[in-house]
Write a structure and sequence with these properties.
Ribosomal_N-acetyltransferase; 39% strand; Aminopeptidase; Acyl_CoA_acyltransferase; alpha+beta; GNAT_dom; single chain
Length: 176
């Protein structure tokens, strides 16, 4: 475990240039999150609309030593007319990767969502080749559920994904 403290907080306007790096710089997005050029104004519009916190999902900035390192996000997945779960993800700047920041941030997000919403299930997925993210999810208390064949198109190829979940009653690690 690293001693590096990780904090989640709502986005501020001065975070927008950091968030936009994930849309404008392939090296910032990383090899598993770059899907080509996309709308560079989407973070600014979402921030202006609701501060990136809504009923169907949200985004929190991941911070350490008062420096924004990326974000965690969640979105509602409707399972039936009376049931939904959350699907979460994390995106970190290159300088924050490989330090355990992602595991700690995702564990904090899981705790936050279970504390403040009535969902039973939180899920996450990643590409089958993204071993670092699979380890991060497992350290954060997620259980691997299976392989999703041909689930994502990136860099000219269809790729397999891996599905993970954590249920409200599952034991969570005290820290990672």
């Amino acid at each position: 475990m690293s001693d590096e403290s990780v904090v989640l907080r709502p986005a501020r306007e001065d975070d927008l240039p950091v968030l936009e790096r994930f849309l404008l710089e392939p090296q910032s997005a990383g090899p598993f999150q770059w899907y080509g050029w996309s709308d560079p104004g989407r973070f600014r519009r979402r921030f202006a609309e609701n501060g990136m916190l809504g009923e169907d999902g949200g985004l929190l900035v991941v911070e350490s030593a008062a420096e924004p390192l990326g974000f965690v996000a969640w979105r509602k997945v409707v399972v039936s007319p009376s049931t939904h779960c959350w699907n979460i993800g994390a995106q970190l700047l290159p300088e924050a990767r490989g330090r355990g920041v992602g595991s700690r941030a995702q564990l904090q997000l899981v705790r936050h969502l279970f504390a403040h919403t009535p969902v039973m299930r939180i899920e996450a997925d990643t590409e089958a080749e993204n071993i670092a993210e699979q380890r991060a999810l497992e350290k954060a208390g997620f259980t691997r559920e299976g392989v999703l064949r041909g689930i994502v198109f990136r860099d000219g190829k269809w790729r397999d994904g891996v599905a993970y979940s954590v249920l409200r009653g599952d034991p969570l690690p005290a820290h990672v």
